[in-house]
Amino acid sequence: MSARPRTIAVIAPLRHPIREPHAGGLEAMVWDRVRMLRARGHRVLLCAVEGSEFQQDGPPEFRLPAVVWPDERDATDSTYPPGHLERAIPALEAALDFIRRHADTIDLVDNHSLHPQPLTRAERLGVPMVTTLHTPPLPRLVAAARATEHHGRLFAVSAFTAAEWQAHGVEAQVMPNAIDAGRWRLGPGGHDLVWFGRIVPEKGVHLAVRAARLTGRTLRIAGRIGDVAYFQEHVRPYLGAGVDYLGPLAQPALADLVGGSGCALVTPLWQEPFGLVVAEALATGTPVAAFDTGGIGEVAGAARAVRLVPMGDAEALAAAAEQLAGDRGRDLRHRLRTRTEALARFSLDHRATELETVFDMAGADAWA
């Protein structure tokens, strides 16, 4: 690890707590990041929505207000309930003020917020900041990143995402997300199909349902409902007819589900910045049939257990899933090879040393 333990302030997004069951891939990634840094001897202060793990010994200023919908039927992942941002932004400002006041005791800010405020304040905090770009170029984030590019390091989760930001005048290095090999274990495979992730329109689970019905195999769905109206219209009508919804699962149960499946279906209908579910499935040995969009192809790489098909083509997805579930779904030799290849690229243990080097360099740059 780096020459000395550091005190690191990790800023999470404003929407969901960092805890299991994870609200989505971004929250899972931040959760793993905090655990990994603490295990390697660093002091981590997590600034996140109240109800998050890891906040017991942190300052009260690092507890951000929870999102509360007056009517859960209105809940989405793309909007906030009335009045929420009017409470959340001042709370985030108070957390940044805490960092500025305690700049002599904090070595680095590891920023994963999807709000521009941390970037806007970066040069005035007195603490070096590393920011990871998890999304396509959002206009307000682009403006903030352009203004602060010399006051911190910017990283993108894929070369695809880095290129998108570069087209908007923001340069970022590539550091892919990583997964915990000890938690995503090799599974035995099975006959059924699995889909897991946020249940929102851009994740396209309704096309996974259509593809599964074409194969005649049962589809098991796990994840948080991020858009209630979408779920009610496009998923609920098919439940019980070869489609099971298991709800949001904590990671051990989710890993068992994925590892006990014949093939994972990955169906984004947007330019997916990374595609963590692909790496997670492959780590259990389960092959993946996926729409080829955004960073999905990068995560797939040259993996023999992945078939990419045109975005939105449920028939091609069904054919790919049927082939993979039959050829590799239960063959332990194939599954072990799939896992080994995935961990060589995405293991959290491998990424830890890279990350500490980045942190050391960011600190050196700030005071050069």
How would you describe this structure to a colleague?
By secondary structure, this protein is of the alpha/beta class. It is 39% helix and 14% strand. It is built from 13 helices and 13 strands. α10 links the parallel β12 (288-291) and β13 (306-309). The protein is globular.
Task: Please supply descriptive tags for the structure shown above.
seven-stranded parallel β-sheet; 2 domains; 39% helix; 14% strand; 368 residues
Offer a quick outline of the entry:
The protein has 368 residues and is α/β, with parallel strands linked by helices.
Mean pLDDT: 93
Catalogue the unreliable spans: none
Distance between the termini: 22 Å
Q: What share of residues is helical? A: 25-40%
Characterize the largest beta sheet: strand count, sense, and whether it forms a barrel: 7 strands, parallel
Provide the gyration radius in Å. 20 Å
CATH class category of the largest domain: Alpha Beta
* Proportion of strand residues: 5-15%
How does CATH name the architecture of the largest domain?
3-Layer(aba) Sandwich
Characterize the overall form: globular
Topology diagram in text:
Blueprint: E1 7-11, H1 25-39, E2 43-49, E3 63-64, H2 84-101, E4 108-111, H3 117-121, E5 129-133, H4 139-148, E6 152-156, H5 159-166, E7 173-174, E8 193-196, H6 205-215, E9 219-222, H7 228-234, E10 243-245, H8 251-259, E11 263-266, H9 276-283, E12 288-291, H10 296-300, E13 306-309, H11 314-327, H12 332-346, H13 348-366
Helix pairs in contact: 6-11, 9-12
